[in-house]
Amino acid sequence: MTADLKGKVALVAGGTRGAGRGIAVELGAAGATVYVTGRTTRAQQSEYGRPETIEETAELVSASGGNGIAVQVDHLVPGEVEALVARIRAEQGKLDILVNDIWGGEHLTEWDKPVWEHSLDKGLRMLRLAIDTHFITAHYALALMIEKPGGLLVEMTDGTAEYNATHYRLCPYYDLVKTGTNRMAWAHARDLAPHGATSVSLSPGWMRSEMMLEIYGVTEENWRDGTKVQPHFVISETPRFTGRAVAALAADPDRSRWNGQSLSSFQLADAYGFTDLDGTRPDCWRYLAEVQEPGKPADDTGYR
């Protein structure tokens, strides 16, 4: 599968690292101009405390064949988002793809604590980072995107609507954020359809983000050594797998058939024929349900 997005303009909101970086790079590989936003630059680090920067992501986009443009934006500040969209309008005259991947809440999550034990300040901050930011960005960016038909909104989350409907995500705030984002995409789909635009939510599987690799003390080159710490890490996937899902969706002239749906990286790989960087198609959500949750030994045979 080779996506062709030459001439397309994308905004990856929250593209500093993880899925956002993988998506930005794959959109660039397909020829798109990609605006990469986030709070961490080479001159200033956000509260998240990670070393990755928006400039690095933009450079990777350009190196992949696209045009990467880094813009420091706090998506909780409406004026900054409004100025970003005004800049895109002035420089490009359109917006074809919006990827809402703003998050940054891992350090706020207190797993396996009920609401009365979880930090209220951290919980409310998580909601602001993951819900408010997406609505603020959609408010300004979608107004530009609908000026021309064919636009695509991708709301990034964790867990498909089907999976999250029957699984508690081990923290009341996290559970609301990740189920709410799926519903957000569904709602936007109703408003965007009359304008010829498509909205979906998209979930990666167990993603080998920079943070996850660091937690297991491995690199992308020797990631399988992480299975010594957590055997089920065997089903993990790269951020680029999700990136290829977004690129394939954006390049599909019939993408409106997905409008309002909650999708996974594997589901789109199966539909469009792309693979992860290693040539496999990790089916994480089926693996979780059929292998990890029933307590079976870790084995990705038949799930790639």
Kindly describe this structure:
With 304 residues, the chain is of the alpha/beta class. It has one domain (9-209, 239-280): 3-Layer(aba) Sandwich (Rossmann fold), CATH 3.40.50. The chain has ten helices and seven strands. The protein has helices at residues 18-29, 54-63, 78-92, 120-145, 161-166, 172-192, 210-215, 239-251, 265-272, 284-292; strands at 9-13, 33-38, 67-72, 97-100, 152-156, 198-203, 262-264. Strands 3-2-1-4-5-6-7 form a seven-stranded parallel sheet, sandwiched between helices. α1 (18-29) links the parallel β1 and β2. α1 crosses α8 (239-251) and α8 crosses α9 (265-272). The radius of gyration is 18 Å and the shape is globular. The chain starts with 8 loop residues before the first strand and ends in a 12-residue tail after the last helix. 51% of the residues are buried. The model has no long low-confidence stretch (mean pLDDT 97).
Fraction of residues in helix: 40-55%
Cα end-to-end separation: 17 Å
Give me the strand/helix succession: EHEHEHEHEHHEHHEHH
Here the CATH topology equals: Rossmann fold
Globally, the shape reads globular
Specify the structural class: alpha/beta
Radius of gyration: 18 Å
Runs with pLDDT <50, length 5+? none
What is the CATH domain class? Alpha Beta
CATH H-level superfamily:
NAD(P)-binding Rossmann-like Domain
Query: In DSSP terms, counting alpha (H) and pi (I) runs of 4 or more, how many helices?
Result: 10
Mean model confidence by pLDDT: 97
Q: What share of the residues does DSSP label as strand, in percent?
A: 5-15%
**Whole-number total of structural domains:** 1
CATH architecture: 3-Layer(aba) Sandwich
Strand order of the largest sheet: 3-2-1-4-5-6-7
Strands, total number: 7
Main beta sheet: 7 strands, parallel
